[in-house]
Amino acid sequence: MLTGKVAVVTGGSRGIGRAVAITLAQAGADVAIFYAGNRAAAEQTIAEIEKAGRKGLALQVDVSMAEQVESAMKEVMASFGRIDILVNNAGITRDNLLMRMKEEEWDQVIDTNLKGVFLCTKAVTRTMMKQRSGRIINISSVVGVMGNPGQANYVAAKAGVIGLTKTTAKELASRGITVNAVAPGFIETDMTAVLEEDLKQQMLGAIPLGRFGSAQDVAEAVKFLASDASAYITGQTIHVDGGMVTS
Amino acid sequence: MADTLERVRKIIVDRLNVDPSEVTLEAGIKEDLGADSLDVVDLIMELEDEFEMSIEDEDAEKITTVGDIVEYINKNK
């Protein structure tokens, strides 16, 4: 399905990013992952990619830093020679009620979750434009559509990602590059493991399919959007949330 | 000069799908040759590869005609 393709997955060491990286590798792609700091986790992901018979490359990158992003993309090009798929998944949370939210908490989340998408996208457009093909998949969130108390920064960033997706899609469509977002609902990962039990139960009640999602549920949607099968889809947000948001 | 124009012309004809005779030094890249802003970015990238040079964004913004391109390349290569 993705044989001969090269993918870059940001935030690829853990959670949804890891599942995406491994799933793309199993579909035939060589995969470079960007990770923030957890080298051991990144190496585990690489081991899984290699187990799938593909090449893996782990690079420590702060996606909010333009220079780091640019040099990392160059390294991917040097190793793999092309970039067909970019999955902008790297994200952090700094939850707080708006009235208590510190400026740093706002800035950190916007920088990583929104600016990071801009920088990584910008850094691959040249390559993809020359190739006259490319797939960019941005990981948004159900809360970017619905809003969520205590996550003003995260929600603003994730809603921003949807707008960025639509605009990038329109700018790059004529060059054979598609850009779509995936908006996961409540997915069981390290990021959501820290939430309180009663909150989890309350959220479960809001999910029509009656279960939390897995990282694999998200990875399957990303794999579809990364493949040739989705060639006529661009600028869209695919909700992978058990039916929480219906449009 | 002539050689540069020929190489530039080939790229423009290829990228913008225009007739070689339209690609004169006076021709405006957007106005006369019908390039949109993304085409211009594309063209600049091609030129950078062809002439093995890098064209800064500030300089690229000043380029409006085919003659501007040829002049820029001859001056900077």
TrEMBL record, chain A:
Enzyme class: oxidoreductase
Molecular-function annotations in GO: 3-oxoacyl-[acyl-carrier-protein] reductase (NADPH) activity; NAD binding
Any GO BP: fatty acid biosynthetic process
Active site per UniProt: Y154
SUPFAM superfamilies registered for this protein in UniProt: NAD(P)-binding Rossmann-fold domains
Pfam family name, one: adh_short_C2
Subunit and partners: Homotetramer.
Keyword Phosphoprotein in record: no
Pathway connected to this protein: Lipid metabolism; fatty acid biosynthesis
NCBIfam families documented for this protein: 3oxo_ACP_reduc, PRK05653.1-1, PRK05653.1-5, PRK07231.1, PRK12826.1-2
Ketoreductase domain location: 5-185
Keywords: Fatty acid biosynthesis, Fatty acid metabolism, Lipid biosynthesis, Lipid metabolism, NADP, Oxidoreductase
EC id: 1.1.1.100
CDD domains per UniProt: BKR_SDR_c
Family label: Belongs to the short-chain dehydrogenases/reductases (SDR) family.
Name of the protein: 3-oxoacyl-[acyl-carrier-protein] reductase
Function: Catalyzes the NADPH-dependent reduction of beta-ketoacyl-ACP substrates to beta-hydroxyacyl-ACP products, the first reductive step in the elongation cycle of fatty acid biosynthesis.
Reaction equation(s) it catalyzes: a (3R)-hydroxyacyl-[ACP] + NADP(+) = a 3-oxoacyl-[ACP] + NADPH + H(+)
Binding residue positions for NADP(+): G11, G12, S13, R14, N89, Y154, V155, A156, A157, K158, I187
Species of the source: Lihuaxuella thermophila
TrEMBL record, chain B:
Gene Ontology molecular functions: acyl binding; acyl carrier activity
Gene3D superfamilies documented for this protein: ACP-like
The UniProt record lists the keyword Cell wall biogenesis/degradation: no
Domain called Carrier: residue spans: 2-77
Any one cellular-component term (Gene Ontology): cytosol
Primary localization: cytoplasm
Functional pathway: Lipid metabolism; fatty acid biosynthesis
Name recorded for this polypeptide: Acyl carrier protein
